[in-house]
Amino acid sequence: MNSLGKRTRSAACAVGLLTAATLALSASPASANGTYSGLAYVYGAGTYVDDWSNEGDLSTSVNTSSNATCLWQKILWAEGAIESDGTLFDAADIDGVFGANTKTATKWYQAKYGLPSDGVVGKDTFGNSGVLGLRDYTGDGAVETYHGDRYDINVTRDSEGRYNFYDGDGNARLAGYNYRTCS
Question: In whole angstroms, what is the distance from residue 72 CA to residue 153 CA?
């Protein structure tokens, strides 16, 4: 093969590699709205302490109605969050819908821990709650509790890394972003 043929083939290979790299970089992973982890559920791996530092947004406009929101509301309840009228965020507020009471209670939580108080649960707010609240009281290396200032709640991570919690009716629920089955 002459040098022109080799250069043409090399150029074609380079264009092919560049095209493949560009497509790989421009393709977005399948994910739930607003998630940082790219997964459709609250996820963790390895030691549980920093599991929630890459979770997706929860707010009045993103992942508004979801089991992940229900989990966050349980955390607010466990922490003893306060609503705008000065009352405690209570079990009746845990419905999986991120409304005005959840936003106000989230701002309370954020202010309590020195986070920007925007009422949006993002990776910093979710991450803070995981670092401060996730516990392994049994000593087996697996998380089984979220410890709040007011209550403890059962929170577990399954073998696939997905977080589960119990809803108000005692049903185990997967903390997903794209659906709401909690009560």
Answer: 11
Q: pLDDT tens digit string along 86-99? A: 999 999 999 999 99
- The structure tokens listed for 152 are 């403890």
- Using only the alpha carbons of the chain, give its radius of gyration: 21
- pTM of the entire predicted model: 0.80
- Number of neighbouring beta carbons within 10 Å of residue 27: 8
Enumerate long-range contacts of 119-125, CB under 8 Å, 24 or more apart. 119/59, 119/60, 120/57, 120/58, 120/59, 120/62, 121/55, 121/57, 121/58, 121/59, 121/72, 122/55, 122/56, 122/57, 123/36, 123/52, 123/53, 123/54, 123/55, 123/56
What per-residue confidence (pLDDT) applies to 120?
A: 96
